[in-house]
């Protein structure tokens, strides 16, 4: 329950970063829900004018629910700001994302933004990426067996992400499938990220290196928001 309160805390704090007239990338996940709700409150009560660029059906439907005007990602080339959650964040603000299988569009939106801000509760902070969370890798379905074999050759242990209330594998908004890959904790994931980006059939990894400049961290001690900057 406190985790939910921490997510609400950072979601509300991040909504305070959005200034009138901004075009703002909107991520995906349970922390971002609080961000969108607060944006909706500000649109309604403070008459905030902003355009949201959602990264999934989840965030698009929430923008509709809260009357936040939106643009499609394909209509944009750069954004004033982008706000998103993460599954793990290291001391350099590098992150593992993709818990919600939306990381391909999230990474495009993060890269478009003049400033990309992560909103997390303190449980997401790690010393080293990949300690608790596997690396999500989106692949085109045709390349599933090929990339699975190559990931094993790289020392990874890939597992196809299966739907929970849908039989069969998760299918992303791009028609891809997701492999969750565990690596030995000593693995240089920056090198792995580079090797994966030249592997035919790989769409995108959930490794977000050198993208976030700021992270808002909800801390249970005192229910405060700590800002980390790079
Ligand atoms: O899928 C994603 O990258 C999300 O941002 C996710 O990983 C964070 O989700 P949460 O805010 O529900 O923990």
TrEMBL record:
Pathway: Carbohydrate degradation; pentose phosphate pathway; D-ribose 5-phosphate from D-ribulose 5-phosphate (non-oxidative stage): step 1/1. The keyword Isomerase applies. The active site is at residue 106. It is an enzyme of class 5 (isomerase). GO terms for cellular component: cytosol. SUPFAM superfamilies: D-ribose-5-phosphate isomerase (RpiA), lid domain (SSF75445), NagB/RpiA/CoA transferase-like (SSF100950). The keyword Transcription does not apply. Substrate binds at residues 28-31, 84-87, 97-100, 124. InterPro entries: NagB/RpiA_transferase-like, Ribose5P_isomerase_typA_subgr, Ribose5P_isomerase_type_A. Its EC number is 5.3.1.6. GO terms for molecular function: ribose-5-phosphate isomerase activity. Keywords: Isomerase. Belongs to the ribose 5-phosphate isomerase family. Homodimer. This is Ribose-5-phosphate isomerase A. It comes from Hydrogenispora ethanolica. The gene is rpiA.
